[in-house]
Amino acid sequence: MTSNKKLKMALESIKYKRGHLEILDQLLIPDSHEFIPVNDTSDAWRAIKQMQVRGAPAIAIVGCLSLAIELHNKEFDNKQSLVDHICKQLEYLVTSRPTAVNMKEATHRFSALAQALKDDKNYSKDDVKQLMIEELELMLEDDIATNKAIGKNGAEHILGSSSDQPVCILTHCNTGSLATAGYGTALGVVRRLHELDKLNHAFCTETRPYNQGSRLTAYELVYETIPATLICDSMVSMVMKNKGISAVVVGADRVVKNGDTANKIGTYQLAICAKYHNIPFYVACPVTTFDPNMKTGEEIHIEERPHHEMTRVKGVSLAPDGINCYNPAFDVTPAELITGGIITEYGVFLPDELYNCLMMIDKTKHEEFPRSRSRTNFQIFTER
Ligand SMILES: CSC[C@H]1O[C@H](OP(=O)(O)O)[C@H](O)[C@@H]1O
């Protein structure tokens, strides 16, 4: 059955065909919906840094697609210079924003794959270039399939504990089609619940100071006529107390080995409020957001953004010049506050089980995901 809910295409933030990449300039949403060209890795670096594109998965996807564009347009003397360029540009893209791990994870996977192809005499320079472009392009379709699995796993887990009644979900920041290749992670769980007619209502926070919630998540929810209410960040305790919230579901920028999770600033206090109100707290993310090379959240570098992003909105001052500002873009939620679990494309895991469960997953048995060569190199990342 194709309900009108499914007829409306989800919003997209990335438009790609070989040799051509455009991204939705998210700084202009919701006032205007404009795409800008990304012609190489420098354009991508700048767009990520300025947050014209943002969201852990989208950052990695746009970074990798910008490299695919560069490889398509550039000639190389030999395999070594080709692979050197790939590795160098991937490392450069990682420097655009430090907290989300997805670009770094992609760098490890694709650098390892490029090196392996270089060392394999069966592949010419042109073979390596073609295969690497194809692998980088797989990020797009792989991400959408991954997000739909996250949505399915998360909705089933939440409904399983709600005696199948429609549920109310509270979410933070933007984790939808504007933070990924499409469908979204935490917002993908909301979409799946809506598709199943099991979403009573969604509450989204403004998410100051960049307002990913009021500008981006509300935009997605209105566009797809998903029943939702926008709240200020300061209202979450009252909403949890009075609005029958069934679960809180947020995204992630980096989940480390013990399950501690870096996510948008304000997530930590959401988790504290959820604990106080005995509401299950979930993190939703692809396994490419997992960084088992960090043991606890203490190791995560928290990006601090410019003060003007707090004190000025579209040119209007919200605070006097001269006031000191502290503007961390993320905080770390300790694993013990992630009481619902971590929702991935392979299932929902308690934080302290996540590492062992992921290490045991045989990805070749999950045919539901497009299988890029690089994905099977998950071990490379964890053995670094
Ligand atoms: C699925 S997006 C994950 C994550 O990224 C966002 O941060 P930003 O908008 O600064 O890139 C936010 O923390 C989301 O939860």
Automatic annotation (TrEMBL):
Q: Does the keyword Cytoplasm apply?
A: yes
Q: Does the keyword Cytoplasm apply?
A: yes
* Residues the UniProt record annotates as site (Transition state stabilizer): 173
Task: Return the InterPro entries for the record.
Answer: IF-2B-related (IPR000649), IF-M1Pi (IPR005251), IF_2B-like_C (IPR042529), Initiation_fac_2B_a/b/d (IPR011559), M1Pi_N (IPR027363), NagB/RpiA_transferase-like (IPR037171)
Which EC number(s) does the record attach to this protein? Answer: 5.3.1.23
Task: Spell out the reaction equation it catalyses.
Answer: 5-(methylsulfanyl)-alpha-D-ribose 1-phosphate = 5-(methylsulfanyl)-D-ribulose 1-phosphate
Q: Which residues form the active site?
A: 253
> Can you name a GO cellular component term?
cytoplasm
Q: In which pathway does it act?
A: Amino-acid biosynthesis; L-methionine biosynthesis via salvage pathway; L-methionine from S-methyl-5-thio-alpha-D-ribose 1-phosphate: step 1/6
Please give the name of this protein.
Answer: Methylthioribose-1-phosphate isomerase
